[in-house]
Amino acid sequence: xxxxxxxxxxxxIAVLGGTGPQGRGLARRFAAAGLPVVIGSRxxxxxxxxxxxxxxxxxxxxxxxxxxxxxxxGDIVVVAVPWDGHGELLKTxxxxxxxxxVVDCVNPLGFDQHGAYALDVEEGSAAQQAQGILAExxxxxxxxxxxxxxxxxxxxxxxxxxxxxxxxxxxxTDLVQDLCGVIPGVRGVYxxxxxxxxxxxxxTANLISANRRYRAHAGMRITDI
Amino acid sequence: xxxxxxxxxxxxIAVLGGTGPQGRGLARRFAAAGLPVVIGSRxxxxxxxxxxxxxxxxxxxxxxxxxxxxxxxGDIVVVAVPWDGHGELLKTxxxxxxxxxVVDCVNPLGFDQHGAYALDVEEGSAAQQAQGILAExxxxxxxxxxxxxxxxxxxxxxxxxxxxxxxxxxxxTDLVQDLCGVIPGVRGVYxxxxxxxxxxxxxTANLISANRRYRAHAGMRITDI
Lengths: 225, 225
Description:
Radius of gyration of chain A: 16 Å
Largest sheet of chain A: 6 strands, parallel
Largest interface: A-B, 41 and 41 residues
Strand content of chain A: 15-25%
Order of helices and strands of chain A: EHEHEHEHHEEEHEHEHEHE
Oligomer: homodimer
Number of strands of chain A: 11
Shape of chain A: globular
């Protein structure tokens, strides 16, 4: 049924913000790989409704819950909420997330008539803000530059991108690289410590600019690795 | 002798900081494509000495000069100097660079026992600092993430990377994309406006982290374009 690596066996993946485009896409792909997934939302009923749309026959399960319940249920918790409200949400979930690997995918971006641009973040990056709030969790930064459109393709369709995985704890970045690898075509590549997260989050603005110019859904591959 | 595009015919490329690893590599590759190149340095004698080592038989010319003379000679001027002193140098060359396309390749990085990290730049990025100083020039940002080691391979050896080209003037970014394309294997991809330059400069820290982890000379390809 699946080719999930040993490191992820029996692990439940929670996706906070799992009703948004990026969260939905990741949840569906994780489930398609055979992993049990729970998506979180402010509204548990909406999460349950969306969850039902993300399961492909014969694959893993997707259930919906409010954010605290989802955070509690996840062994690995992916944070795919909008930047606006990111810190406030995490403050309310510190207890549920304690002792867990938290994967922050949030891109602090602004938009105007010239397109996307990176926002200044007081803590340096969304990932560093998360680590500052979640002192008892291990924060890893990943999945920033994965096209939600590509994720929305059928579960078996490869996504042509590498994912830069950043963090300060090797065991956690290795685990998240394994999680990247369950999505067909995707490869997790170690990309440094959390202090270098800002530019990976912000690079999404450049890919959005390229998407506008070339009418594409750009991803990226790291060469020579 | 060469396959240089029409947009670059009869164009001289100046490389300021042309005696450093990145500058040397770019100068040699541009010359190998058949373009006339002049490298600049504080020390004209050193520039001349290094220039003599960069010419491959049958290709373009490389000459050396002090930085003002090189800046004056170039139709397109590549800035590959160290970040330390970047602004001070450009302030002295505003007259020579007026009316020209200036290609900033500078990565404002710091290094400590944990590796490389992005420095805060008051103007946002090296490229924006350059544009602020060079009001009469058109600044484009490119060539940040090209491995100097790969550039140092023989002129015909392909370099497996795309180059993100950023700028606010379409004609200038198109021209610099053409310049990227004269290096075998390299493709220039439009990556947005100068306000999004910081993260492209800073991403070099992530590639350095990956290089340390994987013992590689990482580059990057933008997918779906």
